[in-house]
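Appendix B. One record, verbatim.
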Amino acid sequence: MMRSLWTAATGMIAQQSNVDTISHNLSNVNTTGYKTQRAEFKSLLYQNLQTRTTTANGENKPVPAQVGLGTRIAAITSTYTQGAMQASENDTDFAIDGDGFFAVRAEDGNVYYTRNGSFFWAIGPTGTTLCTSDGYPVLDSNNNIIVVPQGVTSGSMKISGDGEIGYLTAQGAYVSLNQTIGLHQFTNPAGLQKLSRSLLAETDASGAAMNEATTNGLRRSNVRQGYLEGSNVQVADEMVNLIIAQRAYELNSKAIQASDDMLQLANNLKR
């Protein structure tokens, strides 16, 4: 009887983690570039009540009698589907149409990746640079910081659909800086480690970052200036998943209550 108590308890713990994941998705429904997550489950160990070859009558039994010991969270995976394009009036807002990721350099000196293209021109030690909202410099295809040339205003900077960076002179002539916004792809994006501030870290599971500008065979992504990529969270689906998780949690609690009632009956037999 105690086995059923612990089995139902594992179900409640797993469903609580499932609800946590769904809640995180719903809370980030308006986060730029956010990718929805999904909890995946796996069954725990099984106990053999009867082997394949024995029965109470000594007859051959081709199928064993096994009972499982519950469930647990196996993984929480991210789905990297394209989010909706949302128009913006900010010239430094960029959306990626494709599988690429922007590269930024954090304060620890490491390079991280993001789909959040809400950038700003900020004055730093090296001049006016293109940065994230947290002040992290955005990198070009050569992993260099994007800096506004001296004598040029940030309002004159222009970025084309393929990420090429340049500026307009006072006469309206376009001058290229021979820089493009760096875009990188991964063999397994689901293996990226999620950090705060919409940043992603490269891991062994994701594979090394592949620069779209230098890696052959990749389908190039497009940079859409004046747009932001919305999250790919589907609120209706998340609400349905939340109801399912709530019902599963309730059923496991009922199983615990039923086991407790049966134990109480067994205890009362001696009276």
